[in-house]
Automatic annotation (TrEMBL):
The keyword Cell membrane appears for this protein: yes
Taxonomic lineage of the native organism: Bacteria, Bacillati, Bacillota, Bacilli, Bacillales
Subcellular location as annotated: Cell membrane
Keyword terms of this UniProt record: Cell membrane, Membrane, Transmembrane, Transmembrane helix
UniProt GO molecular function: chromate transmembrane transporter activity
Domain of life: Bacteria
Identification of the protein by name: Chromate transporter
GO CC term (a single one): plasma membrane
Main location: membrane
Protein's UniProt keywords contain Cell membrane: yes
């Protein structure tokens, strides 16, 4: 479970900044690629929340517009340290990206035709795919425990079909699932 949280507000602000700064610096590939990094910081490194709460935040965050990494940073910062924590976590996750974008775009623009630059950008894709795969497997294992392996696998297959082959936006699927769960809860 969660370790005791620092009572020193400055220490907590430093931890929020450090955790989300690392996410901002290493989250190559955009918001979805940052999710496993946020999970590592929030659940494993600082233990600000457990896996179940993280999964809930991720599910709800995906139904809202905007970048998922920023929404998660904002919520986790708010939850741990109020408005200042929210601003701190968002700044820490966004500032590295802005700085790196300016530096990289200026630098790489003059080298974009070189094969090593193209290889660099293409080489990151498999790493991001593995990170997302590990996160997906982790969520499937948790879902299998709570809803049963067959139900979890069936939901994963139906979701893949709806999203990939029928073109349904994931937010609509997540919203529908939330409504189904809420509807079942109100009946019980």
């Amino acid at each position: 479970m969660a370790r005791s949280q620092p009572t020193d507000g400055k220490k907590l602000q430093r931890q929020l900044f450090a955790g989300f700064f690392r996410v901002g610096m290493l989250g190559y590939g955009g918001g979805p690629a940052s999710i496993p990094l946020i999970q590592k910081e929030a659940v494993d490194t600082y233990q600000w929340m457990d896996e179940e709460e993280f999964a809930d935040i991720l599910a709800i965050g995906n139904t809202l517009p905007g970048p998922i990494a920023t929404k998660m940073a904002g919520y986790i910062g708010w939850r741990k340290a109020g408005a200042l924590g929210m601003a701190n976590a968002i700044a820490a996750s966004v500032v590295p990206t802005v700085i790196l974008m300016v530096i990289l775009l200026v630098s790489l623009a003059s080298f974009r035709e070189y094969s090593w630059v193209q290889g660099m950008t293409q080489g990151v894709l498999p790493v991001v795919a593995v990170m997302l795969g590990v996160l997906t497997w982790s969520f499937l294992k948790k879902a299998s425990v709570s809803m049963g392996g067959t139900a979890a696998a069936g939901l994963a297959v139906v979701s893949a079909v709806l999203i990939e082959w029928l073109g349904l936006h994931p937010a609509f699927l997540i919203a529908a699932l939330i409504l189904i769960v809420l509807g079942r809860r109100s009946r019980t």
